[in-house]
Amino acid sequence: MKPLITWYMDGNQFHKVTGSRLGSPNVWAALTQSSLYIIFNAPVGGDWSNTLDCYGSRMEVAYVAHYKSI
Predict the structure, then answer these.
(1) What domain of life is recorded for the organism (predicted)?
(2) Mean pLDDT in residue range 32-55
(3) CA angle 45, 47, 53 (to 5 degrees)
(4) b/e per residue, 15-50, with b = 16+ CB within 10 A?
C-alpha cells in the first residue's frame, strides 16, 4: 500500500493525496516523514471598525483524531 494523506469529514472521505499526485518527492518526504502540528484557526473577516475593546475569540471543536500507521 502506498503512503497517502486522507481527509475525512463526518466519516466520509472527501480528499486524498499521494506522492505521485503531488509530483515532488522532496515535498512529499517533508509532509510524511517529519513532525507535523495540527493548528486550529478562527479567522475574522468582514468590515470591522478600529474600536475593538476585547481580545481573543472562542472556537469550539467537537472532535479531533490523529492516526499513526503501525
Answers:
(1) Eukaryota
(2) 70
(3) 85
(4) eeeebeeeeeeeebeeeeeeeeeeeeeeeeeeeeee
**Placement of cell 518526504 in the chain:** 29
- The maximal CA–CA distance of the chain, rounded, in angstroms, is 55
C-alpha 59/C-alpha 39 separation (Å) is 12
For 44, phi then psi, to 5°, come to -120, 135
Q: How many CB atoms lie within 10 A of CB 53?
A: 4
CA-to-CA distance for 6 and 16, rounded, in angstroms? 4
